[in-house]
Predict the structure.
Amino acid sequence: MTNEQKGTLLIIGGGEDRSPGGVILRTLADLVGKGPLVISTVASEEPEDLAKEYTELFGRLGIREVRHLDVATREEAMDEQTSAVLDHASGVFFTGGDQLRITSRIGDTPTFRRLVEIYDRGGVVAGTSAGASVMSETMLVSGSGEDSPRIGRWLQLAPGFGLLSDVIIDQHFAQRGRLNRLLASVAQNPRIMGLGLDENTAVVVHGEEWFEVIGEGAVYVIDGREITYSNLVEGTRGEILSVQNVRMHVLASGDELDLLERSPRRRPEGKPIAVATEPGAEPRVERARSARSEDGRS
C-alpha cells in the first residue's frame, strides 16, 4: 500500500439502492459535492438507459452537473474528445456490466490517464459490481463459487486499474455464494487480500490507508499472509483445496479496516464519515444515513 494517491474510492458490491434515500449513492453524492460527476457505462450493454437512470437520480441528490462517458471501442478511448468528458470532474462512477469491457477498452489510454489524474488530485472514483472489480490491481473476472474450492478449477483473473493495491475484489458476495472463489484467489498469492462485498454494501477507501463500511450487508476480508500450508501446488487436479491458518473478518456498517495493518476496528459511536466536496479540499464530515431495504461477467 502507498499513500501517493490522495483520492477516495467508493467500492460497491452491486445491487445498490437506487432510490433517493439509498445511503450508498447519497454518500457518493456527498463525496462529489456539486460535481461534475461523470457516469461511465463502459461495462454495460444498455449504456443509454443506465446513464439516464443514474443521471436523474444524482440530479435529485443535488449534483448540478452529471456527464456521461460511454466508450464503445478502444479507438474512442484514444480520442482526446472522449477523455475531455473527464475534464475538471470531481468524481467518476463506473456502472455494472462486464469488467473486461472496462479494462480492455480504456486501460492505458488518454481516458484512463485522465481518470488517474482525477484520483491523484483528490477526486472520487466509484464503481458498482463490475465497476467495483476493476479498482484493484488484480481483477477477479469469473469462476465458480457454488461448492468447495478444488485444485485446477477454472478461475479467471486479469489486470485491473490498480487504484487499490494488494487487494482483489469480489461483489454480489453472499448473494451468489462467492466465498470459495475469493478464498481460492487469495491462496494463489497470499500477499493479496480478498475483499468480498454483499449487495447494497460498500466501502469508502481513504488514501489506500483505511476504509469504512456502509450499507445494509457485510464485507468479508480474507487475509492470507499467515497461511502456513496449502496443497495448491502438490495436490492433484480436482482435489479439494486445503488452505490452513487463513484469517477472515466479517465487517458491517460502522466497521473500519486499517489497510496497512489489515486490522479491523469499530467506528466509535457518533463518529461521522469523512467526506470531501471538492478534489483537494479539506475533508468535511457526514453522518452515516440508514440504508433502505446489471451485470454481466462480474
